[in-house]
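task queued by scheduler; priority normal; single chain, no ligands, no partner chains; default sampling; output format set to structure tokens
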Amino acid sequence: MSLAHGRPYLAIPGPSTMPDRVLQAMHRGSPNIYEGGLIELVAGLWPDLRRVAGTAAHVAMYIGNGHAAWEAANANLFSRGDKALVLAVGQFGLSWANSARAMGVDVEVLDFGKAVAPDMGRVEAALRADTGHRIKAVLTTQVDTASSVKTDIPALRAAMDAAGHPALLAVDCIASLGCDEYRMDEWGVDVTVAASQKGLMTPPGLAFVWFSEEARMRCKGGDLATPYWAWGPRAEPVEFWQYWDGTAPTHHLYGLREALDMINEEGLAQVWHRHRVLAGAVWATFDAWSAGNPAIAMNVADPGARGWSVTAARMGAPHATRLRTWTEKQAGVTLGIGLGMAASDDPAYHGFLRVAHMGHVNAHMTLGALAVMEAGMVALDIPHGQGALAAAAKVVAAGA
């Protein structure tokens, strides 16, 4: 008999759980889009968007998802035939590469697999080999949503500098902004992309691109930036409608305002700390479970190469799918699929899952999800080690 009736918990890596405050802020009639409160609200968004990304750079906002953010970045960074070097550590690095390639960009991919951080020696070597400096930009994910691998952005910047290469650095923070520590200007990033539905705790529908003045100047005159995707008018509009090249996404803006207020109230450093501690609780749980079943393991062995917003793991097929089904149907907790780890028609697909701990999440939500997972393993007779929940509780207690 199901115990799922009650408030469900969404532990997938986006869209993340929406705070009541955000939902309530959006629950209103349509505003005047020509003057008054909405215009004033929008004016206050840009400083806070810069703050959360750690930058004084330009900001452009688009009505779209993370893929739209990629396309916006591609359209402004490149002309047809320009070259990009893409660091891939999972599904989303490869997908950004495919997005650029489909737009006419010459893409070179350094594929590091799905479980380890990029080898900066290989990156430096690839840049040194580009003696003609054809590579216009290096693209990478800070945290790949599928694999949960984290790229060390300061180390990447250092490798680029060591190679003496002038390429711009563009970073996908879709899965990490507002979760993992990120300092765009301090780390020497030229372009950052993100979206609303993960650490920014707002429904899917807003995409963001932060870009430096250096990037703006070096990318002038490109032939991919159509009127809709061009970042200039959005970052420096003459009229209000130019922020979105048309009608404003009014209700998303109300939600985003509330979400940014929540981040400001907590403090960005504390937001990062909360995500780091909750991630550590998840990792401690998996470590304990794996002691009793070697088929259970986190996808990324090195803790320093794991994102703080999502944990990708394996449980052995078909147990991950069995567990995901049980937790949702019997207990009201929805876990993420193992995206990109195996084809959906491959039996191995059913051995992977992801646990999200991003955005509007706290200790009891994370501990509750882990307890439900353990209950599911007991109910389904999936072997696992003991003491996992005590290990998670110890991490939370130490970090509180």
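post-processing summary
- The chain has two domains: 9-16+267-399, 31-265.
- The longest helix spans residues 268-291.
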